[in-house]
Design goal:
It is a single chain. With about 325 residues, this protein is α/β, with parallel strands linked by helices. It folds into 2 domains: about 5-145 and about 310-325, Rossmann fold (3-Layer(aba) Sandwich), CATH 3.40.50.2000; about 150-310, Glycogen Phosphorylase B (Rossmann fold), CATH 3.40.50. The protein has 14 helices and 12 strands. Helix 4 links the parallel strand 4 and strand 5 (about 120). Helix 3 (about 65-75) packs parallel to helix 4. The two termini are about 15 Å apart.
Length: about 325
């Protein structure tokens, strides 16, 4: 049984995909946890102390925390793996998205990616972005994984179009919320719903702009969110960028018909039978949503995720990377 230091930023503590990785590693290894809060001057010392009792560090996302863990681990002869491929490596200055675009500690983040023992990117698209950020990174695509048993199937569907994300200023463009609202305005008989935590007051601003057929629910606990996904006929992800798209995959497991852009990882996740609209084009999105509402078979989308993004596949891939790293020691 290996000793693994599991490192994550504080803001990622509630992310279900981070929790799933921790659970799967804990079944075969002895884990210690280390959280990073931005600006913590004692983090390097705490990382050093934890690494003294670890064989390997598994770090979620790259950034200042990953830099310190990888740098110290190299000095101490410890192995490292980083799960990355979203905000930490995206660079979209046109919408102000990405660690580098926002002026974060991107040089340290990219250095960590290039010097980690392995980088586990959560999609093929993310792997390409990791390599663009740090060409020397030893990256492997290890897609996210889901347990279909956790997601309801077979519920009676309603003419409801759903999208899920944190509500904050930079997500209005990145997640295509402006396009989603404009599409709702073009389809007044159809109910549209945006679900997600209001981070900075964006929800109220969007409510003022929303047509009468669009509801903004705020944050929903998982049971209520899954209930809503079970009712929705269509799930729309009209994003400019996605490193993976967990909410999309979860909605598809609930039998939602996906309407997406061709950006980022979305074609990988949604698959060839999804309905595609160009980013930022509300009329095209509305037309595709109208077609998706007429689609009778949501089960094939559930099968696509179950067959291609199972939790068992991710578990086997992550464990294989861990064993490969330790055998090299």
């Amino acid at each position: 049984m290996r000793r693994i230091l599991f490192v994550k930023p504080v803001w990622a503590s509630g992310a279900s995909f981070v929790g799933r990785d921790r659970e799967m590693l804990a079944t075969r290894h002895r884990l210690a946890d280390l959280s990073y809060r931005a600006g913590d001057p004692l983090f390097p010392l705490r990382a050093f102390r934890h690494l003294m009792n670890a064989d390997l560090a598994y770090v979620w996302f790259s950034g200042a925390h990953a830099f310190w863990v990888v740098a110290l681990a190299r000095l101490m002869g410890r192995k490292t793996a980083i799960a990355a491929g979203g905000y930490d490596v995206a660079h979209m200055p046109e919408i102000g998205y990405g660690l580098r675009a926002e002026g974060g500690p991107w040089r340290r983040a990219y250095w960590a990616l290039g010097h980690a023992g392995r980088v586990l990117a959560f999609s093929g698209f993310s792997a390409s972005e990791v390599l663009r950020a740090s060409p020397g990174a030893r990256v492997v695509a290890v897609p996210m994984g889901f347990d279909p048993a956790r997601y309801p199937a077979g519920a009676a569907k309603e003419p409801l179009v759903l999208t899920v994300c944190h509500l904050k200023r930079d997500n209005v463009s990145r997640k295509g919320l402006d396009t989603f609202i404009a599409a709702a305005r073009l389809l007044p008989p159809v109910r549209f719903v945006i679900a997600g935590r209001d981070v900075d007051g964006t929800a109220e601003k969007l409510r003022r702009e929303a047509p009468a057929n669009l509801e903004i629910t705020g944050y929903l606990e998982e049971p209520r969110l899954l209930e809503l996904m079970g009712k929705a006929k269509v799930y729309a992800q009209l994003s400019a960028h996605e490193g993976f798209g967990c909410a999309l995959a979860e909605a598809m497991l609930c039998g939602c018909v996906p309407v997406v852009t061709g950006r980022g990882s979305l074609p990988e996740v949604a698959g060839p039978d999804a309905f595609y609209a160009e980013y930022g084009e509300a009329e095209a999105a509305a037309a595709k949503i109208r077609q998706a509402l007429e689609c009778e078979d949501g089960g094939r989308y559930r099968s696509w995720i179950g067959n291609n993004y199972s939790l068992d596949k991710r578990r086997a891939a992550v464990q294989s990377v861990m064993e490969e790293l330790m055998e090299k020691g």
